[in-house]
Amino acid sequence: MIVEFKDVVKEYGSKEAAFKAVDNVSFGIEEGEFVVILGQSGAGKSTVLNMLGGMDVPTSGSVIVDGADISGMNDKQLGNYRAEKIGFIFQFYNLIPSLTSYENIALVKSIVKGARDADELLKLVGLSECRNKFPAQMSGGEQQRVSIARALAKNPKILLGDEPTGALDSETGVIVLELLQKLCKEEKRTVILVTHNADIAKCADKVIRMKNGKIREIYRNENPLSVKEVEW
Q1: What is the tens place of the pLDDT at every residue in 183-197?
Q2: pLDDT tens, 47-102?
Q3: Which of 80, 88, 139, 161 is the 20 to 30 A CA-CA neighbour of 155?
Q4: What are phi and psi of 30, to 5 degrees?
């Protein structure tokens, strides 16, 4: 198992004003799974993703990733963890506007040893022709695919996406989801997406449904649909 949450609680505020964004959450994720954390705004799903990504720490409980309990790590250790284990895909791409698509991806080499080749990754996401384009010269879908290529440049074990198709139209979102599903199956990446879109959950190996900070349901799709099979 590559990810384990054990009795995780995340509180904000103090004493009488304390609010539990995540309330006693436990689940496991196997390596190479395509997982969707599903829920409406305020369900606690993004807080779970932030703790898994090492950007936040639990108030109590354990977050174990690839055999290491990251909930007890200091800031430097968490920085190394994020650099080595996690690839982030953001809703609004977070590309550097003054850099070309190639440069946005190649920048990872200055952060991580053994980063993957930027041209190889542009080819993987089907954007070799956009090598010298700046973000403003690309569509939203193209920018998101560059964002995925940048996340892959670190060669991470886990890809985390927070509403990665939320800013895209349905047709472009399908292209991005197809790419993520392909990476999961062909490169054996563990892909974990947070979304409020129940249709995306039909493509997942495992679905973790959250509401009001708690897990309401965990289930497996024995025969997950390909992205093209879903009626968007």
Answers
A1: 999 988 999 999 999
A2: 999 999 999 999 999 999 999 999 989 999 999 999 989 999 998 899 999 999 99
A3: 139
A4: -85, 150
The whole model's pTM is what? 0.93
All structural domains of the chain, each given as residue ranges with its CATH number in brackets, are 3-226 (3.40.50.300)
